[in-house]
Design a protein that fits this description.
Layout lengths: L2 H7 L7 E4 L5 H13 L3 E5 L13 H15 E2 L5 E7 L2 E8 L8 E2 L3 H4 L2 E4 L2 E4 L2 H11 L19 H8 L7 H6 L3 E4 L2 E4 L1 H7 L3 H4 L5 E6 L7 E7 L3 H23 L3 H4 L4 H14 L9 E5 L3 E7 L8 H5 L8 H9 L9 H11 L6 E5 L2 E7 L7 H9 L2 H29 L7 H7 L7 H12 L3 E3 L12 E3 L1 H16 L1
Parallel strand pairs: 1-2, 11-13
Antiparallel strand pairs: 2-5, 3-6, 4-5, 7-8, 9-10, 11-12, 13-14, 14-16, 15-16, 17-18
Helix pairs in contact: 10-12, 12-15, 17-19
Length: 497
């Protein structure tokens, strides 16, 4: 048996490899070939049983012709598989190789374009949703999501102060610069922001991209059962990396003190690796998908960074480790490069592996899990949060419960105060979210305000002034009849007192 076949037969099934005993289930075979073409390519080997036993096919030539006919009849646009016959111990198997297709998305004709597109996640063929089909179509035209125009917005929807801060001496407050950096583009005869511009510097990014933020958690132990600390980051994207790094540094230093780890072990804490992983997550998140925020999870023994996305066509976790890259968000990548947040494109994942080796850390893991990409970085030694360690030593569960109840009460009081202030600010006239923030003395929307506005609207205390266009740049919040009655009652009570 050739070394080539030996390697394949000893490999686990995954994104680019699948084994089947036969093709008695032709629909399953076609789904796999469609998923390979829409994802990273792959090989389907037919004639292999359980435990990789070579069983072969009774009529391999007829089987190869049958599969070619099935592909031609079942899949659109037309797909051309490369089929080889290999004989092992007088038993012949088929190796069907599918390359990444420039005509993607491909689909099963019986299910149609809307329901017959499949992509490969791990060893599974998964139906593509509307967002993934749109992504495949954009990629076929070499267009990234963040290059698309937001025709309903204008330059006024960009935070000029933030742009000036980040560009520094290179800043020129003119349309030429914004066009050159793809922050503005021409649409319907006028200059409008791109999606990338709003993601990077939008005044009301949360209104248009509610999942474009970072959730940071420090857990006690090695699972998610006990949260020790939590923060939600809603900064402009160029500021997000440093804000997340501050969260990591706070808990890295605290853990080192609590665990009495020597200073040299602190130097092995993977700050550079984590920064690179965070940058990659921001660059390669699929912002077209309404799914979840980027998640940073700090456990005692490791740190995980997850971003909502599937790998782009032609990409696999293995190819990423060798520096192969396809840029999902062209505008964001270009700005990160200009602001010196990133170095060379495609260098991030290989750098993470090299740096882990130089620090003597376990090899990082990069994987697709469902509709997310996860990077797992192990720590040199376990770090236990200081307060959690004290509680574990004292065994004072009652005090922990009291602290938790007190924290919940404090949070509830803050929520009530924020709700009251928002409603009072809208008493005289409708306000946009930015105007509400200004009325409450904030330079931009805080985390509490971002949570409070949709909460008040969904519970009937606030209303949109343009309810049929929730993402309109002219959108404002006004008091409902319910909130006006409540405020009137509050005012009456004050007069009575």
């Amino acid at each position: 048996m050739s070394e080539f076949l030996t390697n394949f037969l000893s490999s686990p099934e995954g994104k680019t490899l699948e084994f089947r005993l036969d093709s008695s289930s032709p629909e399953g075979v076609m789904k796999t070939l469609v998923a390979f073409a829409n994802s990273a390519g792959g090989r389907l080997i037919i004639g292999v049983g359980d435990n990789r036993r070579i069983l072969g096919l009774p009529d391999p030539l007829d089987e190869a012709d049958r599969i070619r006919s099935l592909v031609a009849e079942s899949i659109a646009p037309r797909l051309l598989p490369h089929i080889e016959l290999a004989t092992i111990d007088d038993k012949t198997i088929l190796i069907i190789e599918i390359y990444v297709s420039a005509l993607a998305p491909h689909w099963l004709k019986t299910a149609g374009h809307d329901h017959g597109v499949f992509v490969r996640i791990g060893s599974l063929n998964v139906p593509a949703d509307v967002a993934m089909i749109a992504e495949l179509e954009r990629r076929a035209e070499d267009i990234s999501f963040d290059e698309l125009p937001m025709a309903e917005l204008s330059r006024d929807d960009l935070d000029t102060t933030a742009m000036q801060h980040h560009f520094g001496s290179d800043w020129r407050d003119g349309e030429e610069m914004l066009i050159a950096t793809r922050l503005l583009t021409l649409s319907r005869g006028k200059l409008v922001p791109t999606r990338g511009a709003i993601l990077l510097f939008g005044k009301e990014r949360a209104l248009h991209f509610p999942d474009a933020w970072v959730q940071c958690n420090r857990f006690t132990g090695c699972d998610r059962s006990v949260t020790f600390d939590h923060i939600d980051l809603h900064d402009h994207l160029p500021e997000m990396v440093e804000s997340a790094m501050l969260f990591l540094k706070k808990h890295a230093l605290q853990g080192v003190e609590a665990a009495e780890i020597r200073r040299k072990e602190l130097r092995r804490f993977p700050f550079t690796i984590l920064r690179e992983a965070l940058i990659n997550a921001l660059l390669h998140t699929d912002y077209s998908r309404r799914a979840a925020p980027i998640r940073l999870s700090f456990f005692d023994d490791r740190i995980e960074i997850e971003n909502p996305a599937l790998l782009l066509p032609g990409m696999s976790c293995e190819s990423m480790k060798h520096g192969t890259t396809r840029i999902r968000n062209q505008v964001i990548a270009r700005l990160f490069r200009k602001l010196n947040i990133t170095a060379e494109w495609g260098s991030g994942i290989p750098f993470i592996f090299r740096e882990a080796e130089s620090l003597g850390l376990p090899r990082p893991q990069v994987m697709e899990t469902g509709m997310q990409i996860r990077v797992v970085i192990s720590l040199a030694a376990p770090l236990r949060p200081e307060k959690a360690q004290v509680k574990a030593q004292d065994g004072d569960q009652k005090r922990a419960q009291v602290d938790s109840a007190s924290k919940a009460q404090d949070e509830a009081q803050v929520e009530v105060q924020v709700n009251r202030h928002i409603l009072e600010s809208c008493r005289d006239r409708p306000l946009s979210s930015a105007e509400i923030a200004t009325a409450l003395g904030h330079k931009q929307l805080s985390g509490n305000l971002r949570k409070a506005l949709p909460r008040l609207r969904e519970s009937g205390w606030l209303e949109y002034t343009i309810p049929d266009k929730p993402k309109s740049r002219l959108q404002k919040y006004r008091l409902s009849a319910k909130s006006r009655a409540w405020l009137g009652k509050q005012q009456q009570e004050k007069r009575t007192l």
